[in-house]
Amino acid sequence: MRIEKCYFCSSNIYPGHGINFVRNDCKMFRFCRSKCHKAFKMKRNPRKVKWTKAFRKSHGKELAIDSTFELEKKRNVPVKYNRELWQNTIHAMKRIQEIRARRQNQFIKQRLKAGKKLELKDDEKEVEKHIHLIEPRVTEEEVYNAALNKTKQKLKEKQKLVEVESMDMS
């Protein structure tokens, strides 16, 4: 049983599913669903259509270059059956799948870090822009000092008035 890849979106096509299109030069194009087939007939570029694997890889949304992809390559060379070889291959496939999942998770976390940094910068800019809306925290000591300063200023003003009046009288 061979699982093929869709020519347009790169998703899996299981036996008995999908559409085959054969061009005049005998090139086979396999599509997973009519959506992919129609997009191909409309001559759309898979790298410019946002829902395809090609777009995601070309725009850095998914892991594109990794050594774990080597196992998935198609091989047309027949190999003589060997039970030990099969067991080792299946064990290696499971191990590679674990490694790939771990690397993809790490890649996604790295990608999202940049977005968090940008979000923080945007938040800081917004706070700076609207700083006048945020009330400063005032302690009791500051309130006391402010009241003391006001009373001192009033006393100074009264003293100046008294001095001015005494000068006017003399």
Textual characterization of the structure:
The chain is mainly alpha-helical. The protein contains four helices and four strands; from the N terminus they run ββββαααα. The protein has helices spanning 34-41, 53-58, 83-129, 140-169; strands at residues 4-5, 12-13, 19-22, 28-31. The strands form two sheets. The chain has a two-stranded antiparallel ribbon. It has a two-stranded antiparallel ribbon with strand order 3-4. The longest helix has 47 residues, at 83-129. It is elongated and about 125 Å long. The chain starts with a strand and ends with a helix.
Structure in a nutshell:
This protein is mostly helical and 170 residues long.
Q: Biggest β-sheet: count, sense, barrel?
A: 2 strands, antiparallel
The averaged pLDDT comes out at 88
Gap from first CA to last CA: 118 Å
Number of helices: 4
Structural shape: elongated
Name the helicity range.
40-55%
How much strand content do the residues show?
A: 5-15%
Strand order of the largest sheet: 1-2
Rg from Cα: 37 Å
Order of helices and strands: EEEEHHHH
How many extended strands?
A: 4
